[in-house]
Amino acid sequence: MMPRHTLPDNCTGGISLPCRTPEKGGQTMIGQLGQNLALCLVPMILVGTTWLLTKARGPFWLGDNFDPEYAYLCSSINLSYLQPIWHVDHPGTTMQLLGALVFRVVYGVIGPPHSGLRAEVLANPEYYLRWVQGVAAGFNILMVWFLGRLVFRKTRKLAPSLALQAAPFSSGLLLYQGFARVSPEPLLLLMTLALIAVLIVFQFSETKTTTTLAGSRVILLFALISGTALATKVTFAPLCLIPWLLLPGRRRKVAYLVGTFGFFGAFTFPIWGNYRRMLSWLFAVFAHSGIYGGGPVQIVDAASYFANLRSLLLSPSVFSVVLVVGVIVIVTSYAVPQVRSKSMAQRRFHLLQVVIAAQMASALVVAKHWTGGRWHYMLPATALSGTVLVFLWAYLRWLQIELRLEFKGQCWLAIGLALVWMSACTMDFLATYRRLRESRDSLLAVGQFIEGHFPKYDRIYSYRSSSIPFALEFGNHFSGGLQSSDLDRLYPNLYSYDIWQKSFFDHETPISFRDLLNRSHGKIVFQGWPELSVPGHPLTEVFHSQGESVYLLQAAP
Question: What was the pLDDT predicted at 235?
């Protein structure tokens, strides 16, 4: 009989539930059907939550939903015609490539042949954006299903499989950003889930050393994931620590870096001519203390940085709780000699340290420009929270067996923790849903107010104005102005006020305020974010909503 403190070779990963032997006959078919249905449960829930969040969000042109969605829409149109891309901030080229591919396929199948792709997409932007969102969300849902299948194949246990599948539920904002938007975040989540899949193979492999990470195929896979993710958004960079720390030997680490830069270059080929502008933007973000490269030349403002870091780490979020617990477990393992001697050479402990280090590195980087609403910068690290929980449980379960500790309540503890996790995630999701729905209803009221009270007035749009014409103009501005002629035909008079340049425009052409008044016969209404001001032209707020207001010119005394 096998000793209790030993794990059998085919019971991998240290989550010590009894190993099963396949049954025969109908019970096996029924069991397999039940397992397959169980592994489809979380993906089906994701379909439902994606639909709910999409409805709560409202149209892409509403409020700040169009940033960066409409910039990606217009950039994808450019790529569809093999024209240059101007929006390189993220860099975001993978989402732009996906958008161009989706536009071509959808237009080729159901688009009217006489109009041309550009005119068709500009005339129906919401329809085509929903297609891109659906495809990106579909990829993520399929990857979640694959993760569950992968873990179950390695462990033959549903508990860790479902726990890994639940990773996107770590945050309501993660669900929103990863499934209900057209931005870099959905593909960033996809790459993070792909990285988790590789870590799962490593965690639950039957070998007890790092030799499973020595092969060239694994290095190539790590490089492909990292290079693609960095081309999507550079906020993935802290997670590149994971392959770097796991790969044994200097040559393999160098090979990984070379491969990562190679794949980054391959997936950013549409912006090869704009590398200098991209690097200048990234350097400005690094060298200045303000957001988006603004503020004084100061890499870190120490006073605000440590306050931001404390706020991030102590926030009431699943990410913060899991990270703090992980750090406590690691520090305790080092502090207790008996535990340290057993853990140092263990793959479980090493992998846990590496993932926690990547999460902490993300927090240290994001803290520079952290505010409570910028959780999307933490999306890759937040998506690792479910993985950390599984690795924590595997390590602690192994440690219990190694130290021959008796703990009869571990099953109830696991159930209790699962219930706490589910409750926290559900409350966070509902809070996100309510916030999006309230914002949607409030912003839709702006357009209804203008149409009801000023139907014959010309609108002067400013940033965050809820309208399709302004959203398209915003996207055109950040894609090099290549849609200007088509937008001129669609919307002959599109007036806007640039709150940063303090100037008026008709599309991309500057216009004086006097000319604007003459064209509109004095009937103009301003639409934009609260506290909008136009130097020299006092405004009166006549309607206020959550994040957007309506203004009229003050009458002369």
Answer: 93
pLDDT at residue 224 in the model: 97
Answer yes or no: is pLDDT of 496 > 60. Answer: yes
| Average pLDDT for 52-66 | 95
| CA atoms of 173 and 437, how far apart (whole Å) | 14
Read off the DSSP letter of residue 23. -
Q: What is the pLDDT of residue 9?
A: 37
pLDDT score, position 214: 59
Identify how many contiguous H helices and E strands the chain contains and give both numbers. Answer: 22, 7
Lowest mean pLDDT among 8-17, 436-445, 510-519: 8-17
Rounded to the nearest angstrom, the gap between the alpha carbon of residue 245 and the centroid of all alpha carbons in its chain is: 24
Measured from the Cβ of residue 502, the count of other Cβ atoms closer than 10 Å reads 11
Please report how the helices 172-179 and 410-453 are oriented relative to each other, as an axis angle in degrees rounded to 10.
60
CA dist., res. 346 & res. 340, Å (int) = 10
Beta strand 509-511 pairing with 495-498: unpaired
510 forms bridges with which residues in the sheet? 505
Do the Cβ atoms of 224 and 259 come closer than 8 Å?
A: yes
Cis peptide, bond prior to residue 186, ω within 30 of zero = no
The closest of 401, 468, 357, 341 to 65, measured between CA atoms, is: 468
- If you write DSSP's letter for every residue of 361-378 in order, what string do you get? HHHHHHGGG--TT-GGGG
Quickly count: other Cβ atoms within 10 Å of residue 440's Cβ: 20
Q: Is residue 384 within 8 Å of residue 191, measured between CB atoms?
A: no
Q: Look over the chain and give the mean of its residue pLDDT values, rounded to a whole number.
A: 87
Determine the Cα–Cα distance for residues 121 and 25; give it in Å rounded to an integer: 55
Distance CA 410, CA 397 (A): 9
Q: How far apart are CA 372 and CA 31, in angstroms?
A: 45
pTM value is: 0.90
Residue 331 CB-density burial (10 A; 0-12 exposed, 13-18 middle, 19+ buried)? exposed
Tokens 């203008």 correspond to 450
Nearest residue to 277 (alpha-carbon basis) of 480, 434, 5 = 480
Euclidean distance between the first and the last CA atom of the chain, given in angstroms as a whole number: 98
Sorted by sequence, the CB contacts under 8 Å of residue 329 that are 6+ apart come out as 352, 392, 395, 396
Which amino acid would we find at residue 230?
A: L
